[in-house]
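re the bet — no i am not wrong, look at it urself. input seq straight from the record:
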Amino acid sequence: MKKTISLILLLLSTNQFFAQDKIGNKIYAYGNVENSIIGKTIIYYGFSDPKSEKKIVEKFQGLGVDAISWNKLFIPSSKYSDYEVNNELANNEISTVILIKSNGKSNYTQSYANTNYNGLTNSLNTSSSSSSIIGNMGIIFEIYNRKSNFNKPVAVVNANANNSWGVAGSERGLVLKIVDRVISALEDEKAFNPVGYFTATETDYSNIVKDNSKNVDALFQRALVRSQKNEGLKGAIEDYNTIISLEGKARPTIFKMSTVYNNKAYCLIQLGNYEEALPLVNKAVELDQTEWYIWDTRGELYYKLNKFQECIVDMDKSIAIKESNNSLYYRGLAKIKLDQKEDGCKDLSKSKSLGNSFASKELETLCN
């Protein structure tokens, strides 16, 4: 990824755009607005006005957009690393980021004169005053989504409005007036697509990859979809191979490379290619020892290679991080293989209670 979200948020200066398309009253669009706002959306509001921010998020939600505020995930004034930002967005399955920021405003001075009659002096007294009133305001909406890896905005909407309320007008009122117009224009332009990046189909991911062969996030998502079907395991492995070939050249935002090596290894395990899977899962462990599923993958592989003690050691580490039914299942089987039947049956029983149907069958066969 060439540019991360945290860096994008620093770009609060007014951008210059050239090719434009008028989509509403004083509203101009740049880029492809149609289907630009996909799936779960997070809105960064670049004004210090929580009340307006809440109303704007609610306006998007009113049109069926699964929208939340940036401040719901990230505490204002706190510093986050690029990894922390991207990881949080991925964990919450955010597909679109909308930045709303000022594009300047103009003010004018309005003068007032008050004349009062003074009965004591039989004279008229005139006093004058003046105040600054907002005249015009511009706002930019920058739309980023995962289909472009958040590298650059897929669409930008530039809008402005005049203050028709005079002295009664406020910045908040003018902002909300513009937002209403822009949301209406976005709806007319069919910008909203509820099918987000994380709920796309294999074909959708293939289309993304076709447009951007280095979109490793799309390759990863397609591999996950493919691996859910036995006939798709080889295709998933091909996607993981492509991601590995792009390591260091394309930056992922929704996964770690340790997971890629782990997932490729697990696809090979499902195909019965145990010896080929072992160096891959060893690489995953080398890269990351904090994920339970990596220890679980190698533990299952060790069991299938008849390395029962090694299986138990890895499953102990997996269960220490998270108690999963698969880790308990294979640890139980390995213990029984090593004549630790009582402890093994306890693991199988716990695995069954966590929803493992295979453990039920093994309990009937091995533990009665």
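see?? Strands lie at 21-24, 27-31, 37-38, 41-45, 67-69, 96-118, 123-145, 155-162, 192-193. told u. also The chain has two domains: 5-104+136-197, 200-366. so pay up
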